Structures are given as C-alpha cells and as structure tokens.
Amino acid sequence: xxxxxxxxxxxxxxxxxxxxxxxxxxxxxxxxxxxxxxxxxxxxxxxxxxxxxxxxxxxxxxxxxxxxxxxxxxxxxxxxxxxxxxxxxxxxxxxxxxxxxxxxxxxxxxxxxxxxxxxxxxxxxxxxxxxxxxxxxxxxxxxxxxxxxxxxxxxxxxxxxxxxxxxxxxxxxxxxxxxxxxxxxxxxxxxxxxxxxxxxxxxxxxxxxxxxxxxxxxxxxxxxxxxxxxxxxxxxxxxxxxxxxxxxxxxxxxxxxxxxxxxxxxxxxxxxxxxxxx
Length: 278
Fold this sequence. Notes:
Elements: H1 2-26, H2 28-32, E1 34-35, E2 51-56, E3 62-68, E4 81-85, E5 89-90, H3 96-105, E6 108-112, H4 126-142, E7 151-156, H5 158-170, E8 174-178, H6 184-191, H7 197-200, H8 207-212, E9 218-223, H9 231-240, E10 245-250, H10 258-261, H11 263-276
Helix pairs in contact: 4-5
C-alpha cells in the first residue's frame, strides 16, 4: 500500500515537473518581453525639445524614436550623442526622466522603441532587438553625422545586452551598461533553479561575451541591492571589460531609477565621459 502511494506521488511529481518545463519552454517570450503600446509621456512634459523620428530597419520594420538635443551647456563641442537601449518592459514614454538625466549632462539623446513596443511595428525577438539598435545607430551616424567615437551606447537591464552586442560591432566612444544581467540563461537559472534552463532557453542576450569584445571604454552601473538582477552580474560584466572602465555602485531596487536618482553616480558617469571619450 505504502509503495503504491509513493509511486503515485512520484508520478504526480514527475508530471508536474514536466508540465512546468513544457510551460517555460512554450512561454519564453512572455518572460522576456513586456511591451506597452500606450506612450503616455513625451520629453515635452519635462521641458525638453525633441524630434519624433521613424527608424527603418533592414528587415522592413518601422521604429518609433525621439531625438532630444543636449541641454546647455553641452558636455563638449560638438555635443556627443547617447543611443539609449531601454529594458524589456514598457516603452520610450517610461524613459523620459532617464532621458532628462543625459540631456542635462549635455548629451544629445536618441531613444527608440524596439519592434512591438510603443508605436513601433512588428513583434520583439532577440535578433530583432539587435537589428533595431543597428537602425538607431545608422540614423545617428548617417542622418546626424555622428562619428562613432562621439557616441555613447547606453543600455539598461535587457537593453544592456542589446547595447553590448551593438558596441562589439561598431566600436562607440563609450559603452554604458546599467543594471544589466550577464546573460539570459543566467537569469533563467535564477528564476527557475530546478529546471534544465541551459537546454530550454532560446534567448541568449549574452552581455558578458559581448562586453569582452566591445573594444571601447566601458561604464557598468548597478545597485548593490538590486532584487531582480543581483549586483554580482554587474561585477562580472565589469571584470570582463577591458580598461579604461568604471564601476558605479548605487543603492535601490531594480526599478528605483538608480543612476537617474543618485547625483554622485551621475557625476561619476559624466566625469568618465569627459576623461575617456576620444
């Protein structure tokens, strides 16, 4: 009798494990992308002039973007540009306060929505987000004439992996990673420690590999008590980067604005740009 009960319990446990494994396998995109289609705020709400831009990707998608000229005085003449790759949730309207951070540093800012986010066409994918960042880069270098050395490629959270992948191909003046994970499989292992995520995970977003190949100055900023992406991820990214590099440590939750809310961190960020942009 006891043996039958144990066997039944084992069968239920195995079935539940396999069911959870199948669910994670089939629903991966819902764990990676949380797009919002309603853009509720623009830079004008914070007194910033901006240009609405439609970016065209190589595979035919149209991306919504804003180009926000630097506040006065600019960081230097001509003002450098910052290409902003945002995280996996929301849309560019949720980044207006962060855009102001860099605007007030004296940087022109181009912030864009990935395909499937905000008013951009298409559906998000890893390959697609990389293509989207490329389209933003091409617009800055082509339409606006920015030299690669005069552009900061900035990425927050998932956007850091997108920014790092772009940086290894285009060699910008500076790569900046804020609250970024080392890779998607590493995050999946944290979320589902008892599942074979190494076999299941279709997404890579391998920021650690890309930052090793970036070939430019690197800033890593990360909260010491980030509850979603542990500080250890930021430390590993910093360790993998070549010199010159800067590690900025602040406090607060993953979505507590971190760099944007901490004046000391902003000063470190700005000083690094002044010293290390060619």
